[in-house]
Structures
1.
Amino acid sequence: MNKDTIEGNWKELKGRVKEHWGKLTDDRLDEIAGRQDQLAGEIQQAYGISREEAEKQVREFEKASKH
């Protein structure tokens, strides 16, 4: 799944993102609107992890969402 696919399918993916990263609020998810860099930044901030770890989690989520 590439960046355009995430942004294009954000409404469908938003629920799964919320399940996976429950600390992210609906308001923040609406503002992110599928942008990977912002999603990683929000995950980093909400969970107190490194940027690299947040980006890794987003990549893993994308892989799992393909199936």
2.
Amino acid sequence: MKMYQVDAFTTALFKGNPAAVIVLEQWLDDSLMQNIALENNLSETAFVQVWDAENYAIRWFTPTREVDFCGHATLASSFVLFKDFTSAKTIQFHVKDLGIFTATQDTDGKIRMDFPVRRAKQVTEYPDELRQALSKPFKNVYLNAQGYIIEYESVQDVLDERPNFELLRQLNGKRTAITAKGSLLDVAITTGATQYDCISRYFAPSNGIDEDPVTGSIHTGIAPLWAEKLSKTELVAYQASARGGELYCSLKAEDRIEISGYARLYMQAEIFI
């Protein structure tokens, strides 16, 4: 069985977020898919079921569980499908409970994905474990369907944060993003000195991922938040993990958001099960 590994939200190998992709005619047994994801030990392994040349079902597994939504593995899956499985330039993913995600590949290789907005609401009450797990002062705390989004005072605070993952693991499955208004990041941190609208990091220890390198799904909450604060509908976001990655975000009508990025193929492999 063929498996691909793709670095998503980057133009450079060994950056962005690596995802494994397996394209299937029929789903494997759930326990087998979970074991493959555990063996891969990546943030996500995506399984894609072919319906026809333009329509696919998709499921995502972390090393410990199936999740309802993953952006970077959708980007990686789109890259693989456009490369080897279809001549179409626009495809549709049919996602349980979330409807249809459309992916379009531009001539320069950028892949534009249409997702539902998962808007975050400001909250004043949150678990003590959240406050104790993070060392930097909060500016605002928000919550969406995926987890907490914490606004920090500065980019430097986001970069310097060293969370207590054991405490974050106790948030009843809620994940945690930290974010700040963007600034010019030094060339040593990114692939070039670039002005970003917002900077973030993302922690998901309850999913077996202490820090996710680049997270498309949480930007369906982060990008609308900053779009409102900055009075913009087009934003460039940077996720400041050790690997780092760039996300191009565009707010659309009917509570939709387009999140775009590039991807690089790292590996094609044969797995034996």
3.
Amino acid sequence: MVTILQKNSRFTFLILFLFLVSCSDNIEFSKYESLPNASWEANKNVSFKFEITDTISSKDLFINIRNNRNYAYSNLFVITELDFPNGTKIIDTLQYEMTDNFGKFLGKGFTDIKENKLFYKENKVFPLNGEYEFKVHQAMRKNGDLKVIPFLEGVQDVGFSIEKTE
């Protein structure tokens, strides 16, 4: 009986230790928005508002994408907008690889859902205190086509996160 309790307490300790180690003190902001029917509508912004009080420390900013096997492309084009408290806007068009050279989805995950943590800005120092807003929308087109794909199938969630740099 004692050995069973010892094994259970060791197992409980191991689980608790792994939980504590996996938690990160570096994350300052993290939020996801689920997309209806795992489909990202063209030109429809996913927005995240966040407060900045530290104008000294640098931070890494990430776009987080959860896609499933219905995502039919090897890359992802997005247009981002970062709105500052004083009205300044920074707009970027970005491309990310979503598969390797063999067509296997990149990202983490054991199931059909993969999570990609994509760099947006590295070592960013926010110059102003106050509320910022980050907006992102998909800008995918088929090869040779000028029109944006109206509904980008296979994108389940779009997220945004801010982490302290190490």
4.
Amino acid sequence: MLDAITPEILREFKARMHLDDGEDDNLFRILRASHEDLQSICGSYDIGTNERFKELVFERSRYAYNDALEYFYTNFLTQINNLNLGKALESIVVEGDSDAAAKV
């Protein structure tokens, strides 16, 4: 499996956080853990094409970087639930009941 956390994703995160070089290994680790955790909760999203998912990965990574991860899930519960629900509705449509998504 290709690593979803590319050097470009790392560069974007560092720019957003106003971080310089020197912590790349730690930042890669944080971003990978955030990506893996959020995929297990929200479903499989492409961080390169889904901006809402990327935003959540970056936010969780920011909280982890600042040793405040325990606050992330409460503060971003709505966004997490929206992605999770979106993935559930997407699977309903893929399974062939396109009317089911409209009924929800």
